[in-house]
Design a protein that fits this description.
- The protein is α+β, with helices and mostly antiparallel strands.
- The chain is about 30% helix and about 40% strand.
- Strands 1-2-3 form a 3-stranded antiparallel sheet.
- The radius of gyration is 12 Å and the shape is globular.
């Protein structure tokens, strides 16, 4: 069974640190099998993508495509 979680990372832009959020997929052993990091700096937006992945049982190999579609959509 695939488990999706928020992927949190600290990024530095123009010398200023901030949190960046993405989505990661984990297998039954807790190993990362797919990741789309640094999608947004707004956690609630990453949570929105996370719920879509869970609800639609998204394949981990499509996480980057899902993130890209989200970024170019009106939902972003």
């Amino acid at each position: 069974m695939i488990c999706y979680r928020i992927y949190e990372n600290t990024i530095t832009v123009d010398g200023k640190e901030s949190e960046s959020y993405g989505v990661a997929a984990f297998d039954e052993n807790g190993e990362i099998i797919g990741c789309a990091p640094d999608i947004t700096t707004v956690r609630s937006k990453a949570e929105y993508i996370l719920e879509k992945c869970r609800r639609n049982n998204a394949s981990p190999c499509h996480l980057k495509d899902i993130a890209e579609d989200f970024i170019i959509s009106d939902e972003y």
